[in-house]
UniProtKB/TrEMBL annotation:
Its main location: membrane. GO terms for biological process: protein localization to membrane. It comes from the Eukaryota. Keywords: Membrane, Signal, Transmembrane, Transmembrane helix. This is Transmembrane 9 superfamily member. The chain crosses the membrane at residues 286-308, 352-376, 382-407, 419-442, 454-478, 509-532, 538-566, 578-597, 609-638. It is a multi-pass membrane protein. Belongs to the nonaspanin (TM9SF) (TC 9.A.2) family.
Length: 648
């Protein structure tokens, strides 16, 4: 911490800055805190051997994206001012997979040094030049699709704040690269720009650095003389919709202005709050939680009634052996005690899906716990995705163990096939879908395309870490004795009587996913917004609570339907318990289609294919998660009720 008195000492040559620089591992850029009336952030750069301070503040540019296309692009893709990309910060695994590409910008900022109408660069396009025409067409395409800039200063997003509904301020973490005015429309950042079928480019930005926030106002200004820019001009840069005529020139000068404004009301630790407070979601979140709790209370009441009243009466009646005549009158779930633990068909596949579902469950639980503790805040870019992938790889052991234990309880003997399928099937499905999506992004030159070296690294994590850990888990699972069931299984299967409509498999499975989905659909809207609309997601406490409610709802729904089916003397509960809660994923897919049709404006085929490709990955993982939750809840319930009943 440096105070004003320390700075005065430094001017007299008494402050040992090289020693301070060495303390930060010889870094040339040191982030320090300085007291100027109130707490203020400033970057000092110290060059060893020199006796002065340089207050350069780095402005970084990130990828550009839009709600009208799933394909993001790097900053240089649209032929903006060139930058030296050799000084780009290193991205983590999550940032690379998500397509973030952070690069230095051509905009130079010095702390507490206002600048007005500074030229960043000038681009000239000449009609008839194929290269220039192609770049200009690309620029117009980006404007028409409403691609958004995403800039970063001091790890804070540069925000564009504007009024919504004439009274409420909304701060977006991106601002448009321009606007295309169609018939009877106006420009999004200036209502005066209303010439039909014209492209207006945001070639000037007013950066307002308010300690500790950075805000931007995009403007379109036509500089008649690039050497003497005039930022007070009202004429915008107009790009015609057609091609330039042969020999016709179009000069675009990119400029920027910087102002500094101290803010004594915002502390450095709470500098993100103004972005989060502009998102009026908290009341909706509490409504979502209350809605989910009502469903949970309803289901808990039903389960409690069954467990405490119906089951208690059933067990008491079944255990009263008064006469042979009474025994003949037995009915309900006790009659199938000799078949209820009969191994299901396709037991190998079920055990593999349960192992992978356990892996996804543990991954989700640990990630949400870390997020609630603040380790995965929006300030840690890419940390959430990195945590997901690392945990999924490292949790191969519980997947192999659970799969082996379940498969052995089914009487399976092909342990090699079980281990290989557990380690390869579900991760292989996700990787194949991801690889196909990546091929499309490669072909489009998108920043979201994962480099070949990163794909090799992901494969190395899969085969070098996840697969061996799965084998270790399966080894311990197969070494243990098979799970002992509370009742013996008859040699001859019992015939299942005709079922009513609501106890048949398909209607029960379809009904089973409704209530769990009802608990999450409001939270789902915000999650999809953060993925596809670049909105910031920070409400991990709400999300963790919703996850707990989802687990409870899936468990109770599956137990209820399982009890009804057993009372109807249908003992095929293994697959049904997995599919009943897993069918929630189908409703998730339907909701994603609804979101695509109503919220996004995607029209091109490639973006549509990419959207549904990534949606399938999300739906598949959610299917494994909810299916495993329902199965193990039902497995515990069935073992519990048959362990307390007397069987001759």
């Amino acid at each position: 911490v440096i105070t004003l008195r320390d700075l005065e000492k430094e001017q007299n040559g008494n402050l040992n800055m090289p020693r301070l620089a060495n303390f930060y591992s010889d870094c040339t850029l040191i982030s320090l805190k300085m007291y100027v009336e109130k707490l203020t952030v400033i970057c000092f750069q110290w060059n060893v051997g020199e006796r002065h301070l340089l207050s350069e503040v780095m402005l970084y540019v990130n990828r550009l994206n839009t709600e009208e296309s799933v394909i993001p692009y790097e900053y240089h893709h649209f032929d903006f001012c060139p930058t030296d990309e050799t000084k780009s910060p290193v991205e983590n695994l999550g940032q690379v997979v998500f397509g973030e590409r952070i690069r230095p910008s051509p905009y130079k900022i010095e702390f507490l040094k206002p600048q007005s109408c500074v030229v960043a660069c000038t681009k000239t396009y000449v009609g008839g030049d194929k290269s220039g025409d192609a770049q200009l067409q690309l620029l117009k395409k980006g404007i028409s699709l409403n691609y958004q800039h995403h800039w970063i200063v001091d790890n804070m997003p540069v925000t564009w704040c504007y009024l919504q509904n004439h009274d409420q301020q909304y701060c977006s973490t991106g601002f448009p690269m321009g606007c295309y005015v169609r018939a009877h429309e106006i420009c999004i950042f200036n209502e005066k720009f209303d010439k039909p079928h014209t492209y207006y480019l945001s070639n000037h930005v007013d950066l307002k650095v308010t300690y500790h926030t950075v805000k931007v106002v995009p403007r379109s200004i036509h500089h008649k003389d690039p050497n003497k820019p005039d930022c007070s001009g009202k004429d915008p840069v107009e790009i015609p919709s057609g091609n330039l005529k042969a020999g016709e020139k179009l000069n675009i000068t990119y400029t920027y202005s910087i102002t500094f404004e101290p803010n004594n009301t915002i502390k450095w630790s709470s500098r993100w709050d103004y972005i989060l407070e502009s998102m009026p979601h908290t009341n909706i979140q509490w409504f979502s939680i209350l809605n989910s709790l009502v469903i949970v209370l309803f289901l808990s009441g039903m389960v409690a009634m069954i467990m405490l009243r119906t089951l208690h009466k059933d067990i008491a009646r079944y255990n009263q052996i008064d006469s042979g005549e009474d025994a003949q009158e037995e009915f309900g779930w006790k009659l199938v005690h000799g078949d209820v633990f009969r191994p299901p068909r396709k037991g190998m596949l079920l055990s593999v899906l349960l192992g992978s579902g356990t892996q996804v469950f543990c991954m989700t639980l640990i990630t949400l716990a870390f997020a609630c503790l603040g380790f995965l805040s929006p300030a840690n870019r890419g940390a959430l995705m990195t945590c997901f992938m690392v945990l999924f790889v490292c949790l191969g052991t519980p997947a192999g163990y659970v799969s082996a234990r379940i498969y052995k309880s089914f009487g399976g003997e092909k342990w090699k096939s079980n281990v290989l399928l557990t380690s390869m099937l579900c991760p292989g499905v996700v990787f194949c879908l991801f690889f196909v999506m990546n091929l499309i992004l490669w072909s489009k030159g998108s920043s979201a395309s994962v480099p070949f070296s990163t794909l090799i690294a992901l494969l190395a994590l899969w085969f070098g870490v996840s697969v061996p850990l799965t084998f270790i888990g399966a080894y311990f699972g197969f070494r243990k004795r098979p799970i002992e069931h509370p009742v013996r299984t008859n040699q001859i299967p019992r015939q299942i009587p005709d079922q009513s409509v609501y106890t048949q498999p398909v209607p029960g499975i379809i009904m089973g996913g409704v209530l769990p989905f009802g608990c999450i659909f409001i939270q789902l809207f915000f999650i999809l917004n953060s993925i596809w609309s670049s909105e910031m997601y920070y409400m991990f406490g709400f999300l963790f609570l919703v996850f707990v409610i989802l687990v409870i709802t899936c468990s109770e729904t599956t137990v209820l339907l399982c009890y009804f089916h057993l009372c109807a003397e249908d003992y095929h509960w293994w697959w049904r318990s997995f599919l009943t809660s897993g069918f929630t994923a189908f409703y998730l897919f339907i909701y994603c289609i609804h979101y695509f049709m109503t919220k996004l404006n995607i029209e091109d085929t490639a973006s549509t294919f990419l959207y549904f490709g990534y949606t399938l990955i999300m739906v598949f993982l959610f299917f494994l998660l909810t299916g495993a939750i329902g199965f193990f809840a039902c497995f515990w319930f069935v073992r519990k009720i048959y362990s307390v009943v007397k069987v001759d």
